What we know:
By secondary structure, the chain is mainly alpha-helical. It is built from 16 helices and four strands.
Amino acid sequence: MKTEYDFFMIERVHLKDKNIFPFQIYVFNPIHKKYSMFLNGNRPLTKELDSFLTFLVERGGKIAVLKKQRRTFLTSQDFHESEIPSLKSRELHELEKERIMNLKFKEMYDEKNGVFSFQSEFEIACDTDNFEKIIEFARIEILTFSVTQSHTISLALHLTKTHLNKDNYLNRIVATSYLFAKTANILDPVALSDIICGAYLSHIGYTQLPLSLLRIPVLSLTEKDKKLFEKHTILGNHLIKKSQLDLTDRCKKIILDHHERINGGGYPSMKYGESIEILSLIVGSIAHLFEFSSGKINGSKLPVKSIIINMKNKTFSPGLEFDFGEKVYNSLVTLINTDKIEEKKAA
Ligand SMILES: [Fe+2]
């Protein structure tokens, strides 16, 4: 379907007194926001059609020509593009200029570093406990997103620009969630921005909990404190609502549902199966991986690689979760080459 980006607008006077044109003429209907073909190329604009065109224009219709026929239009109507207001190049916004620079930077980065393999870089990052390259790659890529598409993309760009610049706990979750989503074939910048904003904001509810509570591993909390801790999802959702931050519903769901699990054993709503968005499961699984690794769940630190092996082998250990749904689970356990590690162990 053709969109506004495919057309430029002209006025009736730009058709002059001619009645045959080598380009197609479209009319934009402002009520239905649709472009319809009005006159095919090299077909006569009869008196009846001309009157009908005037009728449509008087009622708010706009005459449009395809951008790909711009040259044909200018030559046949003998205009310079500076004489057609919709063809005048507008001054780019600062953010758009920045994006053009970021696109060039990404090109140079790719040229210098070659193809980025998330799986192998993730394995190196786990081995060296250094996620700088993963975070840097995610940052460079996210900064090429369009600045004019949606609020969530703009917020994802802002958060990336201001925060995704050093190797820390939260940035590991954000960058890994983003690149992990791409391995699950989620490539739409809107969905990826939901992931970025959701991952950054999923624990904003912590700010409403006593700090002492957050310093205790989840499995060591009393039943009462555990219930309070689990409220961070609802509190986060409430804060977002109160702030009136313009996020998509899917992004809000990530914040509310990142602890929901496919088997219905999660919280806060014990959602089950497909009622949980895959993006919530992605952020939930990656956050869980780093939470478990850092000892936030059971009080003992464990390398990310060992957690993935345990997940793959479904080795049950207190607090370790893997009910993220088949698609997320399968992508998660293939994040590193566990066969190679197990072969090494056996040797
Ligand atoms: Fe959480």
